[in-house]
Each structure stands twice: as structure tokens, then as C-alpha cells.
Design goal:
18-stranded mixed sheet; globular; alpha+beta; 39% strand; 350 residues
């Protein structure tokens, strides 16, 4: 009898050594694994993502298997931490892309990751996987579970100066959905931009997007995410993989710039993780909402700050098309292993 692809993946052993290249994009980590991986069956990146999640699993509760053991090892202490993010590089859907990626975090897998796409663009050029000029731009095409995205890597004098991420189409799904939280009623806007994001003005809950308010912002974000679990606006027509609230964006308005709107946000995802960056795909969701409000026209920008003060520049191109520009820097390379006698070898989280 031939084992099913998911069963085959589940019964493989975790590799003895896992090599990674680490970047940060506007402060948010991204750990890239392009070798030493168990086989991940599937004809497309979306199918491989389903394989990684496993039958009966979900994006935030995947089934155990060799691949997920790698994820757990890399994201959990002592090799990672609860805020770690990363991706497994896999084959593209077809010859139109350079490669594919499965995004992962502490709790499982996500269908989109703008900051990760920017890091992958920088990595592809830095590693020579995609040729780039010393001066000018190189386009890195990447297949992700939500579709095909691009990272345009900007170069000057042989150095990468920035990366522009073009996302899958962004669309607004619902406005002013009332949600009860422990600090008051939130009016939530819902938009899809590779993943589903819920947006709420922090001041409506008596909060500010500051480090001091992070505990309350995190608690409110989790409450909103839980309350919207079965809301029809969180459903994506392409099925359950893209459905359900991935992140909750709590934002505050700042004075407009000559080029457009200016906001600061904190994005809460998984079971209370905080995006250190302004959130790449979340910025796409914010652009769609601002465009519908008439605050951004084609070619106008959103200056989007994170809770740690880093910045993305988002641009609404019209017809659901968004671009987000930021910076990504390499932080190191690693060869991780697990000692057979180490009682904490598989890792832990606090």
C-alpha cells in the first residue's frame, strides 16, 4: 500500500541539522529555511501549506509531523521565541515565479506575510538566487498560499536600499461591525489582503498605540479575534485556508503628510503575538479601507508606523492593488541541531 502524501510527510524524521538565514524587516524577525527540509507533497504552494497543516488541522493548530517539528524547533526556545516568524522555501507553482514559501509562526502557518516577502526578496538577491544590478531594481516573484506576490529589490552602489512588496488584491469585506471587549464596544472594519485583518481605532477603546498600552492592546486584539471567529465577513470565497481573522490591527491617526495619511498601529496575531513591524499585509488591508473612505487615491501614500517606531510606506494603486515599501537586513546564519540527550531539545515556550 502506498502512503498518502500527508502520511508520508508525517512519518519522516526531522532533519539532524537545519540551516537558516535570518533577517529582520522593520524590526520583525524572519527565519528562512531553504534546505534540510522533509518532503512537502503538493502541486502548488497552497497544497503544500495544506500538507504542512495536516488533515484535521488548522493554520493555528497544525497536526504534528516532521515538517512541523522543524517549525516548532525553530520558533520555540531556546532556538527561537514566541515572536519568531519564518518561512520554508518550496518550489513555485509554475515557471512564472522564482520560488514559493510557506510562512510560519509560533502557533502554525499563515497564508500571507508582507514583512517576510520583503525579507525573502533581500535574501534572494543577497544569496545570488535572483540576479540584481548594482544600481537599479530586481523583481523577485514568489508564490505564497494566497497567490503570487512580488518583492522589488531596490539597489544602489551594490547595496539593497529597500524592498517594495506588491500584494495579492486587497478588498473590504465589512464595516463597523460591533464587538464587545473588556474595555468597551469596538467598531471593527474587516478587509482581506492575503489574510483577513480586523481594524479598530485604538482611541475608541480608550487606548493609544504605545508600549505602555501593549498589554491592553493585546488583550483587546485577542478578544476581537475570538468574537469574530464565525463572522461571515471573515470567510474567503477561495475556502477555509484563507478564511478567519488572522490579525487584529489597532491603529491611531497621526497628522497627514503631504503625500497622504499617517497612522501608527500594532497588529496582534496568533494567541497574542505582536508584530514589531507595521505589518506588511496588514498595511495592504489598511490601504483598502482608507481608499474606500476616500482618504487615499491612486498613487497616494500611507506612512505606516509600528509600535517600535519603524516605518512602511504603503501606496494605493487602485483596483485592489497595493504596494508596501520597507527595509530588511540580514541578522545571521545558523545551523540548528538537537542533542538526543537534551530533555528540552524539542523546545518550549513561556
Amino acid at each position: 500500500m502506498t502512503a498518502s502524501p500527508s502520511a508520508t510527510a508525517a512519518t519522516q524524521a526531522r532533519p539532524a541539522v537545519v540551516r537558516t538565514t535570518d533577517y529582520h524587516t522593520a524590526g520583525e524577525p524572519f527565519r528562512i529555511v531553504s534546505e534540510d527540509l522533509p518532503a512537502i507533497p503538493g502541486d502548488t504552494v497552497a497544497e503544500r501549506c495544506a500538507t504542512a497543516i495536516g488533515p484535521g488541522g488548522s493554520g493555528t493548530a497544525p497536526r504534528r509531523g516532521a515538517l512541523d517539528d522543524v517549525r516548532r524547533m525553530l520558533v520555540q526556545e531556546p532556538r527561537g521565541h514566541a515572536g519568531m516568524y519564518g518561512g520554508f522555501v518550496v518550489p513555485a507553482d509554475d515557471d512564472g515565479a522564482h520560488f514559493g514559501v510557506l510562512f510560519w509562526h509560533k502557533d502554525g502557518y499563515s497564508t500571507a506575510c508582507g514583512h517576510g516577502t520583503m525579507a525573502l526578496g533581500a535574501w534572494a538577491v543577497d544569496s545570488g538566487r535572483v540576479a540584481a544590478p548594482a544600481d537599479g531594481d530586481a523583481e523577485v516573484r514568489i508564490d505564497v498560499p494566497s497567490g503570487r506576490v512580488t518583492a522589488t529589490v531596490h539597489r544602489a552602489e551594490g547595496h539593497t536600499t529597500g524592498i517594495t512588496f506588491r500584494n495579492v488584491a486587497a478588498r473590504v469585506a465589512a464595516r463597523k461591525v460591533p464587538v464587545a471587549t473588556s474595555v468597551g464596544i469596538a467598531e471593527v472594519d474587516i478587509a482581506h489582503a492575503g489574510a483577513c485583518y480586523a481594524s479598530v481605532a485604538a482611541r475608541d477603546l480608550g487606548l493609544a498605540v504605545t508600549r505602555e498600552d501593549l498589554p491592553a492592546l493585546t488583550r483587546a486584539g485577542l478578544e476581537i479575534r475570538t468574537a469574530l471567529a464565525s463572522h461571515p465577513a471573515t470567510w474567503h470565497p477561495d475556502g477555509p485556508l484563507l478564511s478567519g481573522v488572522y490579525g487584529v490591527i489597532l491603529y491611531e491617526e497621526l497628522p497627514d503628510t503631504p503625500l497622504g495619511a499617517h497612522q501608527r498601529n500594532v497588529t496582534v496575531f496568533a494567541d497574542g503575538q505582536i508584530d514589531r513591524s507595521p505589518c506588511g499585509s496588514g498595511t495592504s488591508a489598511r490601504l483598502a479601507l482608507l481608499a474606500e473612505d476616500g482618504r487615499l487615491g491612486p498613487g497616494e501614500d500611507l506612512l505606516h508606523e509600528s509600535v517600535v517606531g519603524t516605518v512602511f510606506t504603503g501606496r494605493w494603486k487602485g483596483e485592489g492593488v497595493t504596494e508596501v515599501t520597507g527595509t530588511a537586513y540580514r541578522t545571521g546564519e545558523h545551523a540548528f541541531s538537537v542533542d538526543a540527550h537534551d530533555a528540552l531539545g524539542a523546545g518550549f515556550l513561556l
